[in-house]
Design the sequence.
């Protein structure tokens, strides 16, 4: 399949996440290391990221990158690749299927192409500014539901998370804390949920999915690439946005 003007970048990202998943399947020994309070990394994360970076340096040696485990920075060059080898490591470590591999390509500071792959859920999302979004190689149409029948997923800092959930849960069908932006963005992009909220800045978590939903026809609030609120109707987006921003404002 041809993917428009970013075809070479997208095919590279597709091949990279597929090769990464092969490492996951073939790995027999999982080692877990602490990398901060309430955060872990596994030997598989490091192996997958190392493979992708080796391929990247060979195929696009002049394009810089930002990656979760090896970059040690959240500063993003205007033109670069962003890499998250295993998004949802805590889920992966516990044997849950709610994890994925994701990458984005940026031009002029904005994500213009991305690939999200959730192998255990059987979902892959390919997006670019000039082609829109394909989920499992197909276009998706979105069924609008009213707020009371909407299912929302959320990820973000604990200091905001639980009050936001409480205030949302009073009016929606249900809230889920998913623990993986790759899964959250993939589920909303594929039309399986009605809304998704991510309240952090980490570029490897945010930018691949942000690219996908911005090219999907969904309604998106993006605060300078520091959070994303996505919904399949303007009414749901405004409700989610107000709830989140009101809670954050209390901290100022």
Sequence:
């Amino acid at each position: 399949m041809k993917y428009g003007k970013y075809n070479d970048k997208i095919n590279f990202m597709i091949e990279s996440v597929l090769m990464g998943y092969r490492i996951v399947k073939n790995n027999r020994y999982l080692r877990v290391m602490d990398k901060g309070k309430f955060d872990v990394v596994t030997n598989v994360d490091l192996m997958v990221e190392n493979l992708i970076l080796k391929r990247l340096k060979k195929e696009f040696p002049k394009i810089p990158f930002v990656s979760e485990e090896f970059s040690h920075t959240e500063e993003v060059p205007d033109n670069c690749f962003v890499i998250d080898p295993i998004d949802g490591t805590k889920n992966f470590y516990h044997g849950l299927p709610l994890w994925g591999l994701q990458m984005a390509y940026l031009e002029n500071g904005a994500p213009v192409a991305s690939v999200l792959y959730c192998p255990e859920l059987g979902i892959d999302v390919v997006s670019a500014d000039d082609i829109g979004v394909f989920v499992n190689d197909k276009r998706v149409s979105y069924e609008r539901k009213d707020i009371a029948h909407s299912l929302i997923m959320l990820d973000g800092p604990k200091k905001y998370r639980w009050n936001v959930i409480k205030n949302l849960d009073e009016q929606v069908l249900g809230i889920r804390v998913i623990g993986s932006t790759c899964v959250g963005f993939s589920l909303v992009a594929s039309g399986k949920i009605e809304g998704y909220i991510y309240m952090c800045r980490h570029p490897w978590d945010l930018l691949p999915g942000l690219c996908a939903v911005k090219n999907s026809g969904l309604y998106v609030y993006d605060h300078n690439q520091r959070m994303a609120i996505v919904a399949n109707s303007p009414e749901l987006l405004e409700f989610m946005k107000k709830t989140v921003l009101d809670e954050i404002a209390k901290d100022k």
About this structure: The chain has a mean pLDDT of 92. Helices lie at 7-26, 43-59, 89-93, 158-169, 181-189, 203-214, 234-249. The two ends are 48 Å apart (CA to CA).
